[in-house]
């Protein structure tokens, strides 16, 4: 199968050069980017007045949590989790979670996300949805043992069951990742076992780290050190680890993350909404740490829109540093695309020959995106997910002119209302 995208403003290569050109996709790869490509293709997309952008990599989410959107707002993390979210999650079934996963997949495709890193329950159901939706997913079962050895074994067994399930799908798009929830919910034994298993099976790890001051206090009380020093001391950290949040990091923590090649998934909306704090973006980037962008779940954001997330990241760090040159549009755009792909070892996140054909086409024929003075600026500061018109993953069109081709939008919206009626 081939796709020819004609006459768009193409965000090209690592340096985000914007060129008026055509893009030719064959099978799942970008094979040519040039002016006036004169070749036939199975599908031709007219991108006049539109921007051909790399698809977005959401480096941290809990995709089924859209089910809980709006049910617990305006709370700090620990109250939000313990008093509201965890009691609701205790009632989740595989069927309910699957409906939530469909809702999340729908939202991501409609806002130009092509790859996501997920942590949740019933991940075999999430894997089925990911496969069907056409998205690229890195899926982890969120492990929590609260120091109970019996629970440690159960959680490891469930993670291994999900790993086997996902590996047997034998998909290039759907991958298993280990997901110990956080240093405050996982024992040292569990964290060490995850490290051992990730080495043995060659899998990535994702984990919430240093999100709130409460966490820093809890870990200091329990272990007498910071969460990052703790993870370093037990040999957990390596370049296959993606930590979510990294808000409360001191200089020593940042040096440790840089030394091990750890990636940080920044979640500005969630950090602001839960009032967790402001992560030290500039200091992390200066130390050479790879920083990607995530939305966190839809109950703490409250959506999965990576275009909105870019704007929030840029604005947050400008005002926090009282410096408008911090978190400039190009830096933030790279975080949302190529930095995320780098964390996953994925040849994606750029429009470039031989890269995976993961693309979002954004319609600039709109008042808030004219005149087209600066494409990257418009993508970060002016656009939002509703401006995404077409989403392509692995050389397959998932949404064309805002029409979903892999999922039944109306059914998903109806199922979501039914399920939440039964759950609450
Ligand atoms: C065990 S599956 C994942 C687990 O994480 C919870 N969660 C959602 N957002 C956050 C966050 O910002 N910090 C910590 N934990 C979070 C989610 O509700 C699930 O219980
Ligand atoms: Zn999270």
UniProtKB/TrEMBL annotation:
Amino-acid positions noted as binding Zn(2+) in the UniProt annotation, renumbered to this chain: 60, 62, 208, 296
Limits of the Amidohydrolase-related domain: 51-397
Catalytic activity: S-methyl-5'-thioadenosine + H2O + H(+) = S-methyl-5'-thioinosine + NH4(+); S-adenosyl-L-homocysteine + H2O + H(+) = S-inosyl-L-homocysteine + NH4(+)
Residues annotated as binding substrate: 89, 181, 211, 296
GO MF annotations in UniProt: 5'-methylthioadenosine deaminase activity; metal ion binding; S-adenosylhomocysteine deaminase activity
The enzyme's E.C. designation: 3.5.4.28, 3.5.4.31
Cofactor: Zn(2+)
Gene3D superfamilies: Metal-dependent hydrolases, Urease, subunit C, domain 1
Xref: CDD domains: ATZ_TRZ_like
Manner of cofactor binding, per the entry note: Binds 1 zinc ion per subunit.
Family the UniProt entry places it in: Belongs to the metallo-dependent hydrolases superfamily. MTA/SAH deaminase family.
Protein's job: Catalyzes the deamination of 5-methylthioadenosine and S-adenosyl-L-homocysteine into 5-methylthioinosine and S-inosyl-L-homocysteine, respectively. Is also able to deaminate adenosine.
Name by which UniProt lists this protein: 5-methylthioadenosine/S-adenosylhomocysteine deaminase
Gene: mtaD
